[in-house]
């Protein structure tokens, strides 16, 4: 049962239970409470769809209760579900895929340049990609996207996921990227495209504008990234992991039966220790 249905029905069940407790002494009221309970249990469900919500908070403001998702995106109040990021009301099941399962960067008015992206390609349509320089799935994606530079502009945003070595690489490259020196920025781009990080300093630079990197990490957490690579297509669709066929996913082509499984993402939230053959994992 989806989150919205649960939020509606749980208070109703508690209300029904309270009614039955208060009227237990009255035989006439028993039939009324039974009717309420029976009506709830026989509610017809016409559709069901999960919302991308990992947690829910209840806020009281005056006499009104508001339920808000942990990342602040979804709010339920007065019987209405609102996507706060895009200021759109979710009224029906079809709105889940059209609105809730997408990240509309334009409606959010998110400035990609504030995240210190590495721009690859010169196409009209923009794709936002979160990567870790040591992530093997990210390396596959970076290799695949180079064939699509005429159709898309890929904005690669680095976030340190895979431990201290990743953090050192990301900090060094982010500082060079934020320097506004075209030569340094081109050097960063070439390193990422070739996956060549040899010779980088191991000590943090004395002078560095870390604001873009800090904004990138905060944005990744806001979007609820569970792993890298994480992609946002021009139409707002999202994907965790490297798509089996990047061009097909970007064009939203139906998946063939033989290519249902995508290359997995490096998980940011490990549930249990991994074997040596499994992917490295670390929370942001």
CATH class of the largest domain: Alpha Beta
Q: What is the subunit organization of this protein?
A: single chain
**Span between termini:** 30 Å
Low-confidence stretches: 1-21, 269-282
* Overall helicity: 25-40%
Q: Label the overall shape.
A: elongated
How are the strands ordered across the major sheet? 1-2-3-4-5
Main β sheet profile = 5 strands, antiparallel
Listing every helix as H and every strand as E from the N terminus to the C terminus, the arrangement reads HHEEEEEHHEEHEHHHEEEHE
Q: CATH superfamily assignment of the largest domain?
A: Glutaredoxin
| DSSP strand content | 15-25%
**What is the tally of beta strands?**
12
What is the name of the CATH topology of the largest domain?
A: Glutaredoxin
Radius of gyration: 24 Å
Rounded average pLDDT: 79
Strand pairing plus helix content: what structural class? alpha+beta
Secondary-structure arrangement, i.e. CATH architecture of the largest domain? 3-Layer(aba) Sandwich
Count of DSSP H/I helices: 9
Total domains, how many? Answer: 2
List the helices and strands and how they pair.
Elements: H1 3-22, H2 27-41, E1 56-61, E2 64-69, E3 74-77, E4 80-83, E5 88-90, H3 94-100, H4 105-108, E6 118-120, E7 125-131, H5 136-145, E8 152-158, H6 163-177, H7 182-194, H8 211-222, E9 227-228, E10 230-232, E11 238-240, H9 246-250, E12 266-267
Parallel strand pairs: 7-8
Antiparallel strand pairs: 1-2, 2-3, 3-4, 4-5, 6-8, 7-10, 9-12, 10-11
Helix pairs in contact: 1-2
């Amino acid at each position: 049962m989806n989150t919205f249905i649960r939020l509606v029905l749980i208070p109703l069940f508690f209300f029904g239970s309270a009614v039955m407790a208060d009227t237990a002494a009255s035989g006439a009221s028993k039939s009324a409470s039974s009717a309420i309970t029976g009506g709830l249990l026989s509610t017809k469900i016409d559709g069901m769809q999960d919302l991308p919500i990992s947690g829910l908070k209840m806020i009281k403001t005056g006499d009104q209760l508001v339920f808000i998702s942990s990342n602040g995106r979804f709010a339920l109040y007065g019987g209405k579900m609102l996507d706060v990021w895009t200021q759109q009301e979710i009224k029906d099941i079809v709105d889940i895929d059209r609105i809730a399962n997408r990240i509309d960067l334009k409606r959010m008015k998110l400035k990609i340049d504030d995240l210190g992206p590495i721009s690859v390609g010169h196409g009209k349509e923009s794709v936002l990609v979160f990567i870790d320089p040591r992530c093997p799935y990210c390396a596959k994606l970076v290799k695949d996207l180079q064939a699509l530079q005429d159709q898309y502009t890929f904005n690669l945003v680095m976030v340190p996921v895979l431990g201290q070595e990743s953090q050192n690489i990301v900090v060094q490259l982010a500082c060079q990227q934020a320097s506004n020196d075209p030569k340094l920025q081109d050097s960063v781009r070439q390193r990422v495209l070739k996956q060549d990080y040899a010779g980088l300093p191991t000590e943090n630079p004395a002078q560095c504008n870390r604001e873009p990197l800090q904004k990138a990490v905060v944005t990744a957490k806001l979007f609820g990234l569970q792993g890298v690579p994480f992609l946002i297509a021009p139409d707002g669709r999202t994907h965790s992991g490297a798509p089996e066929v990047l061009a097909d996913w970007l064009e939203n082509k139906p998946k063939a039966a033989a290519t249902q499984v995508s290359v997995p993402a490096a998980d940011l939230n490990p549930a249990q220790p991994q074997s040596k053959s499994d992917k490295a994992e670390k929370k942001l």
